[in-house]
Amino acid sequence: MLRFITSTALSLLALTAHAETITYDTDQSFEDVSFGLESAILDAGLVIDSISHVGDMLERTRQDVGSDVVLYEKADVYSFCSAQVSREVMEDDLMNIAYCPYDIFVMVRADNPDTTTIGFRGFPDGSMKKVEELLDRLSRAAIGQAE
């Protein structure tokens, strides 16, 4: 029982250690930022595993769950992996598998339709910062920001 409690406490501590979300706002359209992100991912030699249309899903199910709140004009999450970076971080710690695939989101908030936000969750200190640096480079490239 003590082992379970210790494991659970450590898991919760790990979750809070990287709860920061890194975002960039732009006046570019959702479509332009999405295209920029797809191009940045592909230009880096990576493959997009999936695009989750989170905004569409939340809007489609809004009334079904009893809500009248519109959250996003548009919101997608791009999932992908990097064989090179993933191998590096997993050779350092096999448990880093929990972070793969990596995600970058693009969204336009319903309450701020003139701003598109691109971002990703931060990672814990250590080898996972390599992944955070990759996601940061891709996010900045998507909106034309130099590093």
Into how many domains do the coordinates divide?
Answer: 1
> What's the β-strand tally?
5
Contiguous low-pLDDT stretches (5 residues minimum) are: 4-18
Helicity, as a percent range: 40-55%
Q: CATH superfamily name? A: TT1751-like domain
Tell me the span between the first and last alpha carbons: 48 Å
Question: Order of strands across the widest beta sheet?
Answer: 1-5-4-3-2
Taken from the alpha-carbon principal axes, the silhouette is globular
Structural class: alpha+beta
Strand content: 15-25%
Q: How would you sum up the major sheet?
A: 5 strands, antiparallel
CATH architecture title: 2-Layer Sandwich
Highest-level CATH class: Alpha Beta
Task: Give a structural overview.
The protein is of the alpha+beta class. It has a single domain (19-142), classed as TT1751-like domain (TATA-Binding Protein). Helices cover 42% and strands 24% of the residues. It has five helices and five strands. It has helices spanning 2-17, 30-43, 54-61, 83-92, 129-142; strands at 21-26, 47-52, 72-81, 102-109, 116-121. A five-stranded antiparallel sheet has the order 1-5-4-3-2. Helix 2 packs across helix 5. The N and C termini lie far apart (48 Å).
